[in-house]
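Record filed here:
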Amino acid sequence: MTEALVCWKCGTSLDGLPRPLSRRAECGACGAELHVCRLCQYYNPRVSEKCDEPKAEHPREQDRANFCDYFKPKPGAYVAPDDAKTQAARAQLDGLFGAATEKGGAGSAKGKSREGLEDLFGPGENKNDKPQ
């Protein structure tokens, strides 16, 4: 079974669009241009020119419409973003500095952050604390 052609940016099905895709074709859901390197079967982000077709001219922007004669739409070109690392890092920061929703009082996120820094580096002199 072959994969359906989907938008490279949002993953919406492109079954309703006429083939071959014109240079001006756009995704009906997100408005992304579709005659782009990112939707082509020759697109390869691991090589310097990001294209496995040696004869093709290589546009600077792989997510903008181009006039490439070697363009062939690649089914399944959409890759969902992997937010696992971002969420793990955010959880670690919340653990260190407290949740961003805490405000005010000695137990606030800012107060806990300051205490954590003072534990690591000792009490420092703050220019704002000195009389002027």
